[in-house]
Amino acid sequence: MKDVREALMVSRNTDGKLVRRPLSPHLQIYKPQITTAMSILHRITGVALAAGSLLMVCWLVSAATSPEAYYSVRDFTVSWLGRLLMFGWTVALLYHLCNGLRHLAWDAGFGFEKDTYKSTGLAVLAVTAVGTILIWLVVLLGGAS
Amino acid sequence: MADAKDIHVDIMRSELGRARGMGAAKSGVGHWWGQRVSALALAPLTLWFIYSVLSLGSASHEAVLAWASGPLTLVLLLTLAGMTFYHMQLGLQTVIEDYVHDEGKRLLALLLVKGAAILLAVTAIVSILKIGL
């Protein structure tokens, strides 16, 4: 055995004998669960937000360039495609933010009980949905359009 | 699964090396901490940014310039930009390291993402300063 990753899977059993520690089964074995679905969604929304940051930079650059550039970006953000992108960005941002706080709580050692991670997961989904609706009510009704 | 008598470990890595867990890059848990601390900073900054964008609505160019030239706004915007792209490149690094297995492609992808993050961050910061100062 020459590979350190393989060697790290070697341990001793209660008799003191060297054994290969078992590997957990791969993804396909499990049925989908809220925990795994939300985990991969955290990653997907993170990558989506990275793409969305381009729009934020465009907005800043246009405001720094000229009124004409700024208004053309603003016109894009209120077009149907712009609105769609902004809506997706809102959902991704709220989800990643709320689920990120959930991750920080885990990192601090809280919330690992089976019932807790299910209820916090559902809470993240609920806050994302309600938050998105509230934000878009303000956008569409609050004279912000 | 192999029998116990088949298992023979002959790597040179010390137990101390394993315990420190620094790996070949010698950076240890720096990446992990960087991602958590920037996340902590981004949570309030993001909420502030959403509130600001909603307040601005479809503001005129002059209104945006006036908003961004407030000293507090300027500081928060610059911090938001820095933290966003720092957090972004750490996250994308993890994704790339997980899914791109070819050593050369992985290095190329990492260099591209890190380079793009730096360019975007500098572009955002220059724009913010130009608007706000």
List key phrases describing it.
heterodimer; A: 145 residues; mainly alpha; B: 133 residues; 3 helical TM bundles of succinate and fumarate reductases
In short:
Chain A is mainly alpha-helical and 145 residues long.
Describe this structure in words.
The complex is a heterodimer of chains A (about 140) and B (about 130). With about 140 residues, chain A is mainly alpha-helical. Chain A has one domain: Fumarate reductase/succinate dehydrogenase, transmembrane subunit (3 helical TM bundles of succinate and fumarate reductases), CATH 1.20.1300.10. Chain A is about 70% helix and about 5% strand. Chain A is built from five helices and two strands. In chain A, strands 1-2 form a two-stranded antiparallel ribbon. In chain A, a hairpin with a 5-residue loop joins strand 1 and strand 2. The model of chain A has no long low-confidence stretch (mean pLDDT about 90). By secondary structure, chain B is an all-alpha fold. In chain B, about 75% of the residues lie in helices and about 0% in strands. Chain B contains five helices and no strands. Chain B is elongated, with a radius of gyration of 22 Å. At the A-B interface, strand 2, helix 2, helix 3, helix 4 and helix 5 of A face helix 2, helix 3, helix 4 and helix 5 of B.
Which of globular, elongated, flat, extended, rod-shaped describes the shape of chain A? Answer: elongated
Kindly report the name of the CATH homologous superfamily of chain A. Answer: Fumarate reductase/succinate dehydrogenase, transmembrane subunit
Give the topology string of chain B: H per helix, E per strand. HHHHH
Instruction: Output the helix-strand order of chain A.
Output: HEEHHHH
Rg of chain B, rounded, reads 22 Å
Largest sheet of chain B: none
What is the number of domains of chain A? 1
Helix count of chain A? Answer: 5
The CATH topology of chain B comes to 3 helical TM bundles of succinate and fumarate reductases
Average pLDDT rating of chain B: 89
Structural class of chain A: mainly alpha
In CATH, what is the class of chain A?
A: Mainly Alpha
Helicity of chain B, in percent? over 70%
SS-derived structural category of chain B = mainly alpha
CATH superfamily of chain B: Fumarate reductase/succinate dehydrogenase, transmembrane subunit
Rg of chain A (CA only): 23 Å
Name the assembly state. Answer: heterodimer
Helical fraction of chain A equals over 70%
